[in-house]
Automatic annotation (TrEMBL):
One of its GO terms (molecular function) is fructose 1,6-bisphosphate 1-phosphatase activity. This is Fructose-1,6-bisphosphatase, cytosolic. InterPro entries: FBPase_C_dom (IPR044015), FBPase_class-1 (IPR000146), FBPase_N (IPR033391), FBPtase (IPR028343), Fructose_bisphosphatase_AS (IPR020548). Keywords: Carbohydrate metabolism, Cytoplasm, Hydrolase, Magnesium, Metal-binding. Belongs to the FBPase class 1 family.
Length: 342
């Protein structure tokens, strides 16, 4: 047993240590945020182990119910939702929860309330669960002044009011990516320690990218700027190389690759779904917050995504997010089509 190596492992930057360091920068902090993040991390570890043994544990397939989105819920959608609702309420640091899998906002019992609102997608990429392709969990964190009178309206804040956001990807390795407003950091789960260790410090997305990510199956219903942008990816001007298409169909996995490699992920509006598919509060906002914190951009086709103010907790919005220059190009195409009166 190499005791020295083991001893050295004690100075690894775990996520708890990292968040505690972050918190120590705020004189008024009492550790509430660290406790909240620890409960989210606990939920992710639980879901990760469930996902890894899903086939064995017979938790693949449908749960038999339909959620507020009209989607057939997978067993892991329901299990993940229960895990996070319980973990977040038992943290004693939340007052309101919004989950993709629950129609109404969950108001935490007064005795267990804290100042944070958590919006979350307990299991993202549900269509990929049964074939073992990467899936994830997405979350955003807001604060509220008066927890005593908290109501669903308190969750309908712009994305720019988020105090933190992140996701956990259940893939070949389990990766937790977090921003508390000072850049983006990635942590990998060390199964032998059961700890998330800092492996991707201060993630910065490349300014340009060689990859575009979109469900081309919707192409015939796209608007002109989207069609033009994708056309340009495939048939670029003289001297530029065509981009590669990568589409996993799990937002967490497609955005994680985009964050690390650069490029663009988009779920645009189309004639079939004029507001796109992805949900503002617990998909679009957290990923847009992370993208901006990493030096990228997030655009709806009309405005900066984080400036949106949702009217309902399950609102959807078109979204283009990724490398700074790629989003600039999309913005120009939308401005052009607006000038042409489209
Ligand atoms: O199959 P489509 O239409 O391309 O949609 C894929 C998108 O839908 C989602 O699966 C929606 O998320 P959920 O799985 O959480 O419902 C995203 O992860 C993904 O980006
Ligand atoms: Mg999702
Ligand atoms: Mg989901």
């Amino acid at each position: 047993m190499d005791h020295q190596a083991d001893a050295n492992r004690t100075d690894l930057m775990t996520i708890t240590r990292f968040v505690l360091n972050e918190q120590s920068k705020y004189a008024e902090s009492r550790g509430d945020f660290t406790i909240l993040i620890n409960h989210i991390v606990l939920g992710c570890k639980f879901v990760c182990s469930s996902v890894n043994k899903a086939g064995l544990a017979k938790i693949l397939g449908l749960a038999g119910d339909t959620n507020v989105q009209g989607e057939e819920q997978k067993k892991l959608d329901v299990i993940s939702n229960e895990v996070f609702v319980k973990a977040l309420i038992s943290s004693g640091r939340t007052c309101l929860l919004v989950s993709e899998e629950v129609e109404d906002a969950i108001i935490v019992p007064p005795a267990q309330r804290g100042k944070y609102i958590v919006v979350f997608d307990p299991l993202d990429g549900s269509s990929n669960i049964d074939c073992g392709v990467s899936i994830g969990t997405i979350f955003g964190i807001y604060t509220v002044k008066d927890t005593a009178e908290v109501s669903v309206e308190d969750a309908l804040q712009p994305g720019s009011s988020l105090v933190a956001a992140g996701y956990c990807m259940y893939g070949s390795s389990c990766t937790f990516v977090l921003s508390t407003g000072n850049g983006v950091n990635g942590f990998t789960l060390d199964p032998s320690l059961g700890e998330f260790i800092l492996t991707h410090p201060n993630i910065k997305i490349p300014k340009k990218g060689k990859i575009y990510s979109v469900n081309e199956g919707n192409a015939k219903n796209w608007d002109e700027p989207t069609a033009k942008y994708v056309e340009n990816c495939k048939f670029p001007q003289e001297g530029s190389a065509p981009k590669s298409l990568r589409y996993i169909g799990s937002m967490v996995a497609d955005v994680h690759r985009t964050l690390l490699y650069g490029g663009i992920f988009m779920y645009p509006a189309d004639k079939k779904s004029p507001n796109g598919k992805l949900r503002v509060l617990y998909e679009v906002f957290p990923m847009s917050y992370l993208m901006e914190q990493a030096g990228g951009q997030a655009f709806t086709g009309k405005q900066r995504a984080l400036d949106l103010v949702p009217k309902k907790i399950h609102d959807r919005s078109p979204i283009f997010l990724g490398s700074y220059d790629e989003i600039e190009h999309i913005k120009e195409l939308y401005a052009e089509s607006k000038e042409n009166g489209a």
